[in-house]
Amino acid sequence: MNSVQGLLAASVISIQNSCFTYPACQNCLSRLILDSRRFHCLKCGCTGEAKDASYRYRLSLKIADTNDLFDITVFGSCLDPFFGITAENLQRYMQDFNQLSGETNTESSTRALVHAVETCFIGKRFIFGV
Protein backbone atom coordinates (compact mmCIF):
# COMPACT_ATOMS: atom_id res chain seq x y z
CA MET A 1 0.00 0.00 0.00
CA ASN A 2 2.83 2.43 0.79
CA SER A 3 5.22 1.24 -1.93
CA VAL A 4 6.02 3.79 -4.61
CA GLN A 5 5.95 2.30 -8.08
CA GLY A 6 6.91 5.44 -9.95
CA LEU A 7 7.39 9.18 -9.71
CA LEU A 8 5.28 11.77 -11.45
CA ALA A 9 6.25 15.43 -11.79
CA ALA A 10 3.01 17.38 -12.09
CA SER A 11 1.35 20.68 -11.26
CA VAL A 12 -1.67 21.02 -9.01
CA ILE A 13 -4.68 22.27 -10.95
CA SER A 14 -7.27 22.24 -8.16
CA ILE A 15 -8.14 21.03 -4.68
CA GLN A 16 -10.96 18.47 -4.85
CA ASN A 17 -12.24 18.59 -1.25
CA SER A 18 -12.50 21.05 1.62
CA CYS A 19 -12.00 18.60 4.48
CA PHE A 20 -8.28 17.96 4.84
CA THR A 21 -8.33 15.76 7.94
CA TYR A 22 -10.33 12.71 8.91
CA PRO A 23 -10.66 10.62 12.07
CA ALA A 24 -8.43 7.60 11.39
CA CYS A 25 -8.17 4.19 12.99
CA GLN A 26 -4.77 3.76 14.63
CA ASN A 27 -4.74 0.09 13.58
CA CYS A 28 -5.72 0.18 9.90
CA LEU A 29 -5.89 3.93 9.02
CA SER A 30 -9.52 3.64 7.81
CA ARG A 31 -12.01 6.40 8.47
CA LEU A 32 -13.66 6.09 11.87
CA ILE A 33 -17.37 6.46 12.48
CA LEU A 34 -17.77 9.08 15.22
CA ASP A 35 -20.76 9.87 17.36
CA SER A 36 -20.82 12.34 20.24
CA ARG A 37 -19.02 10.01 22.66
CA ARG A 38 -17.56 6.98 20.82
CA PHE A 39 -15.71 5.98 17.68
CA HIS A 40 -15.89 2.73 15.73
CA CYS A 41 -13.85 1.37 12.83
CA LEU A 42 -15.95 -0.56 10.34
CA LYS A 43 -12.88 -2.25 8.85
CA CYS A 44 -11.12 -3.71 11.90
CA GLY A 45 -13.72 -3.23 14.66
CA CYS A 46 -11.59 -0.96 16.84
CA THR A 47 -13.62 1.21 19.26
CA GLY A 48 -12.91 3.93 21.79
CA GLU A 49 -13.91 7.30 23.15
CA ALA A 50 -14.47 10.02 20.54
CA LYS A 51 -12.14 12.42 22.38
CA ASP A 52 -9.29 9.92 21.84
CA ALA A 53 -9.72 9.64 18.07
CA SER A 54 -6.62 10.31 15.98
CA TYR A 55 -6.71 12.40 12.82
CA ARG A 56 -4.88 12.00 9.54
CA TYR A 57 -4.43 14.21 6.47
CA ARG A 58 -6.30 13.45 3.25
CA LEU A 59 -5.79 15.89 0.40
CA SER A 60 -7.50 15.15 -2.92
CA LEU A 61 -5.96 16.96 -5.87
CA LYS A 62 -6.41 17.29 -9.61
CA ILE A 63 -2.93 17.40 -11.14
CA ALA A 64 -1.51 17.66 -14.65
CA ASP A 65 1.77 16.69 -16.22
CA THR A 66 2.64 17.70 -19.78
CA ASN A 67 0.19 15.20 -21.32
CA ASP A 68 -2.51 14.10 -18.89
CA LEU A 69 -4.80 15.04 -16.00
CA PHE A 70 -4.92 12.88 -12.88
CA ASP A 71 -7.01 12.74 -9.72
CA ILE A 72 -4.85 11.74 -6.78
CA THR A 73 -5.19 11.65 -3.01
CA VAL A 74 -2.26 12.32 -0.71
CA PHE A 75 -2.54 10.80 2.78
CA GLY A 76 -0.74 11.05 6.07
CA SER A 77 2.18 12.75 7.68
CA CYS A 78 3.94 13.62 4.40
CA LEU A 79 1.66 16.68 4.47
CA ASP A 80 2.86 17.83 7.92
CA PRO A 81 5.60 20.10 6.46
CA PHE A 82 3.10 21.85 4.16
CA PHE A 83 0.60 22.52 6.93
CA GLY A 84 3.30 23.10 9.56
CA ILE A 85 1.36 21.00 12.04
CA THR A 86 0.11 17.43 12.38
CA ALA A 87 -3.42 16.59 11.21
CA GLU A 88 -4.45 15.88 14.79
CA ASN A 89 -3.22 19.29 15.97
CA LEU A 90 -4.83 21.08 13.00
CA GLN A 91 -8.16 19.42 13.82
CA ARG A 92 -7.88 20.49 17.47
CA TYR A 93 -6.79 24.00 16.48
CA MET A 94 -9.80 24.43 14.19
CA GLN A 95 -12.19 23.13 16.89
CA ASP A 96 -10.64 25.42 19.53
CA PHE A 97 -10.70 28.39 17.15
CA ASN A 98 -14.40 27.89 16.41
CA GLN A 99 -15.22 27.52 20.12
CA LEU A 100 -13.21 30.58 21.19
CA SER A 101 -14.61 32.74 18.41
CA GLY A 102 -18.15 31.66 19.27
CA GLU A 103 -18.68 30.37 15.74
CA THR A 104 -21.64 28.02 15.47
CA ASN A 105 -21.18 27.91 11.71
CA THR A 106 -17.67 26.70 10.86
CA GLU A 107 -18.01 27.83 7.25
CA SER A 108 -15.84 30.95 7.57
CA SER A 109 -12.90 29.16 9.23
CA THR A 110 -13.16 26.30 6.73
CA ARG A 111 -13.22 28.80 3.87
CA ALA A 112 -10.08 30.49 5.23
CA LEU A 113 -8.28 27.14 5.52
CA VAL A 114 -9.31 26.12 1.98
CA HIS A 115 -8.02 29.45 0.63
CA ALA A 116 -4.67 28.93 2.40
CA VAL A 117 -4.35 25.39 1.01
CA GLU A 118 -5.25 26.56 -2.50
CA THR A 119 -2.61 29.29 -2.26
CA CYS A 120 0.01 26.77 -1.12
CA PHE A 121 -0.70 24.09 -3.73
CA ILE A 122 -2.50 25.36 -6.85
CA GLY A 123 -0.13 26.18 -9.68
CA LYS A 124 2.83 24.61 -7.90
CA ARG A 125 4.78 21.66 -9.28
CA PHE A 126 5.49 18.63 -7.10
CA ILE A 127 6.93 15.16 -7.55
CA PHE A 128 4.33 12.58 -6.54
CA GLY A 129 5.09 8.98 -5.66
CA VAL A 130 2.44 6.82 -7.32
From TrEMBL:
GO terms for biological process: negative regulation of intrinsic apoptotic signaling pathway in response to DNA damage. One of its GO terms (cellular component) is cytoplasm. Residues 9-97 form the Replication factor A C-terminal domain. The keyword Amino-acid biosynthesis does not apply. Keywords: DNA-binding, Metal-binding, Zinc, Zinc-finger. Transmembrane segments: none annotated. GO terms for molecular function: DNA binding; zinc ion binding. The keyword Zinc applies. It comes from the Eukaryota. Belongs to the replication factor A protein 1 family. This is DDIAS protein. It comes from Sinosuthora webbiana. The gene is Ddias.
